[in-house]
Every structure is written in C-alpha cells, then in structure tokens.
Design brief:
Distance between the termini: 62 Å
Number of domains: 2
Order of helices and strands: HHEEEEEEEHEEEEEEEE
Largest sheet: 5 strands, mixed
Radius of gyration: 23 Å
Shape: elongated
Number of helices: 3
Structural class: alpha+beta
Helix content: 10-25%
Strand content: 25-35%
Oligomer: single chain
Strand order of the largest sheet: 3-2-4-5-6
Number of strands: 15
C-alpha cells in the first residue's frame, strides 16, 4: 500500500489535471472582445449576397431534364416576376447538374446572359424580404464561464455516427472524437463531426434544456478548433442557430440523441424572432 502522503500527492495531481474541465478557459475581457467580433462576422455572413437569408426555393431534381421558370407547367416553379414562363432547365446526369438558359429567360451569370453552366444549385434572391428586413440576432449575455476547456476523447479512425436531418433523411458522418466537460458538478459529453478531411474545425450539433424555449427547438450548432492534443476550447457563447431557424428553404441536420444535454446552456444565440413561422 502506498504511504498516506504519497496517496494524497497523487490525488492532488489528479484533481489538478481535472481542473481545466471546470474552469473558464479565458478571461472575461478577452472573451467579450472575441465573441463580439464573432457576432459581427456572423451578421455579415447572413446578410451577404451568399447568406442563408437569400435562399428563395427548395427543389429536388430528378435524373434527366428539369424545366424551370415561373410558369406552372414547369418541373421547378419559382414565382418571380424577373423570370420568363420557362427560363431554362436543370439537367442532372451522373451526379452533375448543368443549367441550360433560354434567351431572355431572366437568368444571368455574373450579370451576363449565357447558354449553359455546370453548377451546384441554390436558388437565391438578393431582394428576398428575409434579407432586406434582417436587423440582427439576439443572444444570451456573454459569459466567460461558458468558454470551457474540455477534454477531447478520440475515437478509432473511421468511426461514423448517424445524423438525421429535418426532413428525416439520414447520413453517416465521420466522428473523430467527443468532448467531455463538467458543469454544476456533472459531466457531459458531445460527439463531434469532421465535415472534411482538411478542416481545421470540428462541428457539433447539440440540444439542451433551452431548446424550444429560449432557443431554436431543433437545437444549435457550434464549431470548435480541431484538437492537437487532449484538451480543446468549447465556447458556447458562439453557439448559433441552424439555417432552418432563419429560412424555410434549408435542410438542417438535427443533433444526434447522445448530444441532447440535460443541461441549460444559457449562452449563445436565442431564437430568431424573424424566422419561419414553424420555428416560432
């Protein structure tokens, strides 16, 4: 048996090693400045020409030709006065989409008329009322207590977790590991997702006791640095609403069951008051 003094020393070392999971990771002034800058960047991203607030339609393409325009006879109908009755067609072949434009159909590329282009499809309207009427977002007060130094627990290479989106569609995403942190004397765990092999951040989808009350019912999103070691900063002050909370024309993933926290995360973005009717 170890001497009492040695056992006490080992216990103290273990507690010291666990302390980063309990303590705030940054000082209040640094956190305030960092989160305010992040909020400004988020506002600019949402209100920009390629932001989620410009989405104006959600369509599913069938293999082959999909006619597009304002007329009701088209496969894809967008009621917009700038479009001709038939503006062109989207052709889906072997996973590649090509848009063929009709002359004077009302569709331009970089301000110019064109014949055809291969593209990834999103229907955007820069004059979408959601974008023009956007006045910003509301948040919980910034608190350095919610910038937490968590333990990163890596998974074996190739581990996947099942993710279901708001339409019930499923996919398996790569999960390199979980973050483990303590709050109010309890330990919590969140699985992370790697969106691409060269990404420098990990993606977290989570729900908590504020979901459907003060925050969006479908949960919130959070990015954290891709860990280089055993600890990582999890800053819930940067938790944000998924696109579905802002626009009807987005298909958002939902938090997996293991990421539904029995905890009130009073940090980050609140429910968007100007969002689609089904979110309010």
């Amino acid at each position: 048996m170890l001497p009492t003094s040695l056992r006490l020393a080992l216990a103290a070392a273990v507690l010291a090693g666990a302390a980063p999971l309990l303590a705030a990771a940054v000082d209040p002034a640094t956190e305030q400045a960092d989160v305010l800058a992040w909020r400004q960047q988020r506002f600019a991203s949402l209100s920009g020409e390629s932001g989620w607030l410009t989405l104006a339609g959600l369509y599913w393409l069938k293999p082959g030709t999909n006619s597009f325009g304002s007329g009701a006879a088209n496969d894809l109908v967008l009621n917009n006065s700038a479009l001709a009755d038939t503006a062109g067609s989207f052709d889906l072949e072997a996973g590649t989409v090509t848009f063929s434009a009709r002359p004077s159909g009302g569709v331009t590329l970089d301000g110019r008329q064109f014949d055809a282009v291969t593209l990834a499809v999103r229907v955007r309207d820069l004059n979408n009322p959601r974008r023009l009427e956007f006045r910003g977002l509301e948040y919980f007060p910034i608190s350095s207590d919610w910038a937490i130094s968590a333990r990163f627990v890596p998974y074996p290479a190739g581990k996947h977790i099942r993710i279901v989106n708001i339409l019930g569609m499923e996919e398996d995403d790569v999960s390199p590991g979980a973050v483990v942190f303590s709050r109010n004397g309890r330990t919590f765990r969140l699985d992370t997702v790697l969106e691409g092999p060269n990404e420098t951040e990990l993606f977290i989808m989570f729900a908590d006791a504020t979901s459907g009350q003060q925050t969006y019912g479908g949960g919130r999103f959070l990015y954290i640095p891709r860990p280089a070691g055993t600890t990582v900063l999890v800053d819930f002050n940067k938790a944000f609403n998924p696109p579905c909370a802002l626009n009807d024309f987005a298909t958002c993933p939902l938090p997996p069951p293991q990421n539904r926290l029995q905890l009130r995360v009073s940090a980050g973005e609140l429910t968007y008051a100007g969002g689609p009717a089904h979110t309010r």
